[in-house]
Structures are given as C-alpha cells and as structure tokens.
Design brief:
The protein is mainly α and 390 residues long. It folds into two domains: 10-244, no CATH class; 262-386, no CATH class. Helices cover 64% and strands 3% of the residues. The chain has 18 helices and four strands. The chain has helices at residues 10-37, 45-58, 63-75, 86-89, 91-106, 109-115, 123-129, 133-148, 151-174, 205-210, 228-238, 262-270, 272-294, 297-312, 320-332, 334-349, 357-372, 377-386, and strands spanning 41-43, 195-196, 226-227, 242-244. The strands form two sheets. It has a two-stranded antiparallel sheet. A two-stranded parallel ribbon has the order 2-3. Helix 13 (272-294) packs antiparallel against helix 14 (297-312). It is elongated and about 80 Å long. The protein starts with 9 loop residues before the first helix and ends with a helix. 41% of the residues are buried.
Length: 390
C-alpha cells in the first residue's frame, strides 16, 4: 500500500532535496544578504515576498534577526563583539555550533534594535513570519511526509541542516579562517574557492568584506571567479524584477602619470583593499629576503610567516610573538623598516578624514617620490603602478 503521493527512484529524492536547498541558498544570498542587509539591489515586491515565504518555510529564520546579526558582524568583525568570528570563538565552535551562536545573538534586544532597521514590517511579517517562525518548517515537514512518505523525513532533515551547516558554519567559519585573499581587508575574511556555486557565491567572502555594498561578489578583474548569485541577479534584472544599486567599481589603469592627480587619488581610495593586496604581492619577496637576513636559522621560518601575515593585515593585529619578531627585524633592516613605514603611510591616505583632496593628492605624490627614491626596486615598481590609476 502506497503511503505517499509520489514513488520516486532514490536519485529523484536527492535531486529534489538539492534543488530546494539551492533555492534556499539563493534566497539567503540575494534577499537576506545583498538586498536586505546591504541594500546592494532592489527587488520587485513579488520576488521579495516569495523569498520571505520560502525562507520561513525552509529555515524559520526571521529577516530582522538575520540582518541585524550580519550587520553587527561587519561592524564588529573579529572583535569580542563579533557574533560568529572563528578568530574569537574558534573554528570548531563556529563550524559545529554556528546556529547556536546565531540563536544566542538573536536573543539580544540591543543587537536587533541597533542593527535590525529597514527590514519588512508589514502585517504578514508581524503576525506570521516573525511571530511563528517554526510553523513554516513544521508545514514543510508535513508536505515532505505526504509527498514522499517516510523518506520525506530524510529530505526534510537535509533541508533543515543545509543553512545551519553551510551558512552558519562554513561561510562564517571557513570564510574567516581558510582560503585565499584577493583584498587586504582589516579582518580575516577569505575566499574559500573561486567558484561560488554551492553556496550561491558566498564562497567569495573576502571579496564581499572588501566591497560589502556590492551586489556582485566576484572580482570583475578575475574572470575565473564565478558568483552564481550574481548570475541570478542578472536574470532578474533582465526580467525587470530587480535593480542593481551598487557593484564593485572597475579598476581603470592608464599610462604612467608624471604627477598624481585627483583621479589617481580617487581610484586608489576606491580600490584601497586591492592596492594593499598589490602592495603585499609586489613587496612580498623583498620583505621576506630582508627579514631572512636578520634572523637566526631557528627563527627564520617564524619570521617569514610573521612578515607574510603583516603584509596582509595590520601589525597590531598579529600575535604577540610574531609582532616581536617583526619589530626586531625592522630594527635590524633599513629596507624592511622602509617597507613598513611606506605601507603605513599608504594606509594614512584614506584614514585621514580631515585632510582636503588637495592635501591628500600632495601626500600621495610625496609617497610616490619617497618610494622612487628608496632604492628598493620592488617599491619603485609599485609606485609606477600607482601612477597609472585613474
């Protein structure tokens, strides 16, 4: 006796589960993340409501809670107040207990009040989605059981575990612990892989932290990076169901300018995390070589790692042991000290909010002149590249 509406082969159940979880991932990345949390795009009301209903049915997440926690993550990234940083809580905790960290933060009224503004607050949100968040997942379980029988519980379990594992665990955990960095952001964000398909483009997490207001998570300068969420957004735009508000600005490189100007300054500030990443790649070999000359054999590998980490982040954020090694090396190497100072002067260009554009252009020109007079070939070459911006 058949106790379900459908009697399917095993692969059909797997395909159904993967298909529905993919729609859930798309709803999270497009609706919750890019649309609600960062306002990087506008969605047609019908599309937005479909995503809200789907998330209520498949996850039970409340829009205001998700948005507030994510915004706080950006505001307090890698600090003790970050709701889910593996640098603070540990990778194991975020990977395996990410949903618990989410629940703990969602219970804080202060977080919701400070960061949960501008989200849907209509009748159905107040009376159903927010008030009864578990009702949707209960309805989905019944639907799966009616459609597939006992195996429907397995399908439902996959649907329920997909977001807690991949979003709360992998993205929040691995996305701040392991992978490659295209941009030298001040946090520990990483691109897990360049093919953002399984998690809707969220795999490109370092790109997102560099340009959080961009609707596109892939770097347009790297053709091999794929953001499947962006492909869906482009489709919605073609159907007049979405409007993109902000994307990663394109880097414009021209001929080497004899003098830096306002356009050069604007391009460098707009692409500041890319500039720091290029600085790190350009000076990496020289800095490592200089550092190696100052350290005894037993400390050489540790010092090389300290220099590598410093080129990707602020020295103050290094572990104390690495910071001490770096300080000793700087005092023993004029070239390494020069690279250190020049990196900090570069950061100062976009950190001084009180300076006028004319003053900043003059500081940029002075920086380039100092680099070109430093006698360090890699620094001289990087300065010439900067003169091509804008």
């Amino acid at each position: 006796m058949q106790l379900s509406l459908f009697d399917l082969p095993w692969w059909a159940y797997a395909l159904f589960a993967l298909g529905t979880t993919h729609v859930t991932i798309v709803a999270v990345t497009i609706f919750l993340h890019r649309h609600q949390a960062h306002h990087a795009l506008d969605l047609h009301p019908a599309v937005g409501h479909f995503f809200r209903f789907w998330l209520w049915l498949n996850t039970g997440m409340v829009t205001r809670e998700w948005v507030a926690i994510h915004r706080k993550h950006h505001a307090k990234c890698e600090s003790l107040d970050d709701p889910h940083s593996p640098q603070v809580h540990g990778l194991r905790a975020v990977l395996l207990e990410g949903s618990e960290l989410y629940r703990m933060e969602s219970s804080k009224a202060e977080t919701l009040s400070m960061y949960g503004h501008g989200v849907p607050d209509d009748w159905i949100e107040r009376r159903l989605y927010s008030r009864h968040p578990t009702a949707g997942v209960g309805i989905l379980m019944i639907v799966d059981l009616v459609c597939f029988g006992a195996i429907g519980l397995t399908v439902w379990a996959v649907q329920m575990l997909w977001i807690p594992f991949f979003a709360a665990g992998v993205i929040n955990g691995m996305g701040h612990y392991w992978g490659y960095r295209s941009f030298a952001t001040r946090d520990a964000s990483r691109n897990i892989v360049p093919w953002g398909i399984l998690i809707g483009g969220e795999e490109l997490h370092n790109n997102h932290h560099a340009y959080s207001r961009s609707a596109r998570l892939s770097n347009p300068e790297r053709w091999w990076e794929i953001d499947v969420g962006w492909l869906y957004i482009c489709l919605l735009v073609r159907l007049h169901l979405a409007r993109v508000r902000s994307v990663v600005p394109r880097l414009s490189l021209g001929c080497v300018k004899p003098h830096c100007d306002g356009l050069t300054l604007e391009a460098i500030i707009a692409h500041r995390f890319d500039v720091l990443a290029r600085f790190a790649r350009s000076l990496h070999r020289t800095a490592i070589a200089e550092a190696s000359l100052t350290a005894p054999g037993s400390q050489r590998n540790k010092l090389r790692m300290a220099v590598k980490h410093w080129l990707q982040k602020e020295s103050i954020e290094l572990p104390e042991a690495e910071r001490m090694l770096l300080d000793q090396a700087r005092h023993s190497s004029t070239a390494l000290q020069t690279i250190y100072v020049m990196r900090q002067r570069l950061i100062d260009l976009w950190s001084r909010s009180t300076a006028t554009q004319e003053q900043l252009v003059r500081q940029l020109e002075d920086w380039c002149l100092s680099a070109e007079e430093s006698g360090i070939a890699a620094l001289q070459g990087f300065s010439r590249k900067l003169r091509c911006y804008g």
